[in-house]
Design a protein that fits this description.
The protein has one domain: Hypothetical Protein Pfu-838710-001 (Beta Barrel), CATH 2.40.320. Helices cover 13% and strands 48% of the residues. An 8-stranded antiparallel barrel has the order 1-5-4-3-2-6-7-8. The chain starts with 20 loop residues before the first strand and ends in an 11-residue tail after the last strand.
Length: 241
C-alpha cells in the first residue's frame, strides 16, 4: 500500500497559507420574474457560477463557488453570519462574509458532502445614475440621484438545465449609504426605496427578500424549490458526529 505524505498544516506563522478575507456585505435582495430574457445580454459583464452548499444546524450556510469568467475558473469557500445593526430600512440585510480561496480538489471533495447545488449565470448591470427615494422623518420622501449603482442579477437553471424565468437581484448598498451620509449628514434614520424597472430584462412582480407577507414568502419559496438541486441526501442510519 502506497502512503502519500500529508500536506503541511498551515498555522499563523505560515506565510504560504491561504488567508481568510472578511468583509461586511450590506445589500438589498429582491426576487422577481424575468420579463425579457434577451435583455439580460445588455449587461456590463457576466460570469457563470456553480455553487455547493452545506447548512449548519444554526441555520447558517457555507458554500464553495466555482466562478467561470472569460474561460478561467476560480474557487472560493465562503460562510456568512449576520452583521448586526445596519441602516437603510427593512430592505437592507447586513452580513459578515468570510472568504478563502481554494482549488478544484477542494471543490470536488466539498461536493461529496454538500446538501445542494446551484447553477446560475450572474449578469451585472451598472447604472450611472439611479433615482432613489430617501425617507426623511420631518420632510417625507426626497428623490435623490445616486451615481454608479451596481445590480447583480442571478439567473438560475433547474435540475434539467432549463432556465428558470425568475431571478434574484442583489444591490450592495455600502457606497449608496456613504453617498447619502455625505449628502444628507443631518439624517440619522435612512430608509431606501430602490427602483429596478429601468433594467433591460424588464423585471416583473418584484418581491423584497425581507418581506413577511404570505404571498411574497410563497413566491420566494417556489423560486428556491425550482432552482435548488439536492445532493447527498443524508442516511438516517448514520450517527451524527
Amino acid at each position: 500500500m502506497n502512503v502519500q505524505p500529508f500536506n503541511r498544516v498551515a498555522n499563523e506563522d505560515d506565510s504560504s497559507a491561504a488567508q481568510s478575507v472578511k468583509a461586511i456585505e450590506t445589500e438589498i435582495v429582491l426576487y422577481c420574474k424575468i420579463g425579457d430574457l434577451a435583455g439580460l445580454e445588455q449587461c456590463t459583464r457576466k460570469e457563470d457560477h456553480h455553487q455547493l452548499e452545506v447548512r449548519f444546524e444554526t441555520g447558517h450556510t457555507s458554500r464553495v463557488r466555482r466562478v467561470t469568467k472569460d474561460g478561467v475558473d476560480s474557487y472560493t469557500f465562503t460562510f456568512k453570519v449576520k452583521g448586526g445593526e445596519h441602516e437603510g430600512g427593512n430592505l437592507v440585510e447586513a452580513m459578515i462574509e468570510n472568504n478563502v480561496e481554494v482549488d478544484k480538489d477542494f471543490y470536488e471533495n466539498f461536493k461529496k458532502v454538500a446538501s445542494r447545488e446551484l447553477v446560475k449565470t450572474r449578469y451585472v448591470f451598472v447604472s450611472e445614475s439611479v433615482t432613489m427615494e430617501v425617507m426623511q422623518p420631518d420632510a417625507g420622501p426626497t428623490k435623490v440621484d445616486i451615481p454608479n449603482v451596481e445590480y447583480e442579477i442571478d439567473v438560475y437553471k433547474d435540475a434539467s438545465d432549463q432556465i428558470v424565468p425568475m431571478c434574484k437581484i442583489d444591490v450592495e448598498v455600502d457606497n449608496i449609504m456613504n453617498f447619502l451620509a455625505k449628502e444628507f449628514p443631518d439624517i440619522k434614520d435612512i430608509r431606501i426605496r430602490l427602483k429596478v424597472g429601468h433594467l433591460a430584462f424588464k423585471p416583473q412582480e418584484v418581491v423584497p427578500a425581507a418581506s413577511e407577507e404570505e404571498d411574497a414568502r410563497n413566491f420566494i419559496d417556489a423560486f428556491w424549490q425550482q432552482v435548488a438541486r439536492p445532493l447527498n441526501q443524508a442516511d438516517p442510519s448514520i450517527p451524527a458526529v
